[in-house]
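Hello again, I could really use a second opinion on something today. I've been staring at a protein lately and its backbone has me curious. Please have a think about how the structure follows from the sequence. I owe you a coffee for this, so here goes:
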Amino acid sequence: MSGFSLPAAMFILVVLALLAAAVYRTVAISNSSVALEMLSARAFLAAESGAQATMMQLFPTNGAPASCGMPSWNLTGSGFNNCTVQVRCNTTTADSVTVYAISSVGRCQAGDLQASRTLEVLANES
Protein backbone atom coordinates (compact mmCIF):
# COMPACT_ATOMS: atom_id res chain seq x y z
CA MET A 1 0.00 0.00 0.00
CA SER A 2 2.87 2.39 0.71
CA GLY A 3 4.01 2.37 -2.94
CA PHE A 4 0.57 3.36 -4.22
CA SER A 5 0.27 6.83 -2.63
CA LEU A 6 3.19 8.45 -4.50
CA PRO A 7 1.92 7.59 -8.03
CA ALA A 8 -1.63 8.57 -7.02
CA ALA A 9 -0.41 11.92 -5.70
CA MET A 10 1.62 12.51 -8.90
CA PHE A 11 -1.41 11.64 -11.02
CA ILE A 12 -3.60 14.08 -9.08
CA LEU A 13 -0.96 16.84 -9.42
CA VAL A 14 -0.70 16.31 -13.18
CA VAL A 15 -4.49 16.38 -13.60
CA LEU A 16 -4.75 19.58 -11.52
CA ALA A 17 -1.93 21.20 -13.53
CA LEU A 18 -3.68 20.36 -16.81
CA LEU A 19 -6.95 21.71 -15.44
CA ALA A 20 -5.24 24.94 -14.33
CA ALA A 21 -3.63 25.33 -17.79
CA ALA A 22 -7.01 24.87 -19.49
CA VAL A 23 -8.65 27.46 -17.23
CA TYR A 24 -5.80 29.91 -17.84
CA ARG A 25 -6.12 29.50 -21.63
CA THR A 26 -9.89 30.00 -21.48
CA VAL A 27 -9.52 33.20 -19.45
CA ALA A 28 -6.81 34.52 -21.79
CA ILE A 29 -8.98 33.89 -24.87
CA SER A 30 -11.95 35.53 -23.16
CA ASN A 31 -9.91 38.63 -22.29
CA SER A 32 -8.68 38.91 -25.88
CA SER A 33 -12.25 38.60 -27.18
CA VAL A 34 -13.48 41.36 -24.88
CA ALA A 35 -10.63 43.65 -25.95
CA LEU A 36 -11.35 43.02 -29.63
CA GLU A 37 -15.07 43.64 -29.10
CA MET A 38 -14.23 46.95 -27.42
CA LEU A 39 -11.97 47.95 -30.31
CA SER A 40 -14.71 47.03 -32.80
CA ALA A 41 -17.20 49.26 -31.00
CA ARG A 42 -14.70 52.13 -30.95
CA ALA A 43 -13.97 51.65 -34.67
CA PHE A 44 -17.69 51.73 -35.47
CA LEU A 45 -18.17 54.92 -33.45
CA ALA A 46 -15.14 56.47 -35.17
CA ALA A 47 -16.65 55.65 -38.60
CA GLU A 48 -19.97 57.08 -37.47
CA SER A 49 -18.26 60.28 -36.30
CA GLY A 50 -16.60 60.65 -39.70
CA ALA A 51 -19.91 60.22 -41.51
CA GLN A 52 -21.63 62.73 -39.21
CA ALA A 53 -18.84 65.30 -39.66
CA THR A 54 -19.16 64.92 -43.43
CA MET A 55 -22.95 65.32 -43.25
CA MET A 56 -22.40 68.56 -41.31
CA GLN A 57 -20.20 69.80 -44.16
CA LEU A 58 -22.75 68.74 -46.77
CA PHE A 59 -25.73 70.29 -45.02
CA PRO A 60 -24.35 73.15 -42.89
CA THR A 61 -26.78 74.91 -40.58
CA ASN A 62 -25.33 78.35 -41.36
CA GLY A 63 -26.24 78.27 -45.05
CA ALA A 64 -22.64 77.88 -46.26
CA PRO A 65 -22.10 76.01 -49.53
CA ALA A 66 -21.91 72.22 -49.33
CA SER A 67 -18.46 70.67 -49.30
CA CYS A 68 -17.97 67.01 -50.15
CA GLY A 69 -14.26 66.80 -49.41
CA MET A 70 -13.22 65.35 -46.08
CA PRO A 71 -9.66 64.24 -45.37
CA SER A 72 -8.49 61.50 -43.05
CA TRP A 73 -7.71 62.40 -39.48
CA ASN A 74 -6.66 60.97 -36.15
CA LEU A 75 -9.33 61.24 -33.50
CA THR A 76 -8.49 62.54 -30.07
CA GLY A 77 -10.37 62.48 -26.83
CA SER A 78 -11.68 59.94 -24.43
CA GLY A 79 -12.37 56.59 -26.05
CA PHE A 80 -10.78 57.42 -29.42
CA ASN A 81 -7.09 57.01 -28.60
CA ASN A 82 -5.24 55.28 -31.46
CA CYS A 83 -8.24 55.63 -33.79
CA THR A 84 -8.26 57.06 -37.30
CA VAL A 85 -11.03 57.90 -39.75
CA GLN A 86 -10.87 57.99 -43.53
CA VAL A 87 -13.87 59.46 -45.36
CA ARG A 88 -14.66 59.37 -49.07
CA CYS A 89 -17.47 61.41 -50.54
CA ASN A 90 -18.80 61.16 -54.10
CA THR A 91 -21.41 63.39 -55.69
CA THR A 92 -23.87 62.33 -58.39
CA THR A 93 -26.59 64.44 -59.97
CA ALA A 94 -29.59 62.82 -61.65
CA ASP A 95 -32.82 64.56 -62.64
CA SER A 96 -31.55 67.73 -60.92
CA VAL A 97 -31.23 65.89 -57.58
CA THR A 98 -27.77 65.79 -56.02
CA VAL A 99 -26.95 62.52 -54.25
CA TYR A 100 -23.97 62.21 -51.93
CA ALA A 101 -22.38 58.81 -51.28
CA ILE A 102 -20.29 58.87 -48.10
CA SER A 103 -18.00 56.01 -47.08
CA SER A 104 -16.41 56.35 -43.66
CA VAL A 105 -13.81 53.85 -42.40
CA GLY A 106 -12.90 53.86 -38.72
CA ARG A 107 -9.79 52.01 -37.55
CA CYS A 108 -8.64 51.52 -33.96
CA GLN A 109 -5.76 49.57 -32.52
CA ALA A 110 -4.35 48.68 -29.15
CA GLY A 111 -1.09 46.78 -29.09
CA ASP A 112 -1.24 44.00 -31.65
CA LEU A 113 -5.07 44.03 -31.85
CA GLN A 114 -6.83 46.17 -34.42
CA ALA A 115 -10.37 46.60 -35.69
CA SER A 116 -11.84 48.34 -38.73
CA ARG A 117 -15.46 49.23 -39.46
CA THR A 118 -16.97 50.81 -42.58
CA LEU A 119 -20.13 52.87 -42.62
CA GLU A 120 -21.78 53.98 -45.87
CA VAL A 121 -24.39 56.72 -46.07
CA LEU A 122 -26.46 58.05 -48.99
CA ALA A 123 -27.93 61.53 -48.69
CA ASN A 124 -29.68 63.85 -51.13
CA GLU A 125 -30.82 67.41 -51.35
CA SER A 126 -34.52 67.79 -51.80
User: Anything to note?
Assistant: The beta strands are 73-74, 83-94, 97-110, 113-124. Residues 35 and 113 are 8 Å apart (CA to CA).
